[in-house]
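Entry 14. Ran structure prediction on the chain below.
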Amino acid sequence: MKKTKSLYSHSLKKKLLHDVLHELRTPLTILKGEIGLSLKKDRPRHEYKEVLISNLEEVNRISLILENLSTLLKFEEHKLVLQKTNLNINALLQKVLGNLKSLVKQRNIRIKLSPAKEIILEADENQFEMLFTNLLGSTVKYAPENDDISFSLIKKNNHAVIQIIGSAATELLNNQNQDLTLIVSRNIIKAHNGRIDVSRNVNKEAILSISFPTRISLKQNLPKG
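Output, structure tokens:
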């Protein structure tokens, strides 16, 4: 059987493994502590509910790490098959931002989303949801506490362009070859014939732009149903 050439060096794999172990250890430690504390004595119903909500957030965090590992392995083995559909990028961005509300609140990050008219892109919905979750989650992670982050979605020269503006944009670029979620994101972008660019605006703020060349339809109102 022909051996598939690895996309990543041995040293990078070791670093990724170390980082993933750390990322898994953190939510597991939180889960263990919260469950242990809640079992020490009887508590009011609302306190149990709060613990369960927090537990679910940590379980989702672990699930995302495992999904990223699984996706990276598929890319490594060239086994990922894209299931493309007509995807409403604006709606997906709003959905992912809603899912990250608790993380944004914890770090007191202020996010401004400036969407264009509704953009329909031919893409794999599951992969794009992972892409947006990874990018937005990493942006919040790398941004300083109490920071302002701007996201914009525009159509430019027959490209759908997602822009991340703020101090975290530089960190995203610097860590794109080392962070698991960013490595997976880069592969998803490449699989959809996208590209990543960095620039600065008139205020000298870093802008990370992710663009996808495609046939894009712009509509004021999408058909329902």
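The radius of gyration is 19 Å. Will compare against last week's run tomorrow.
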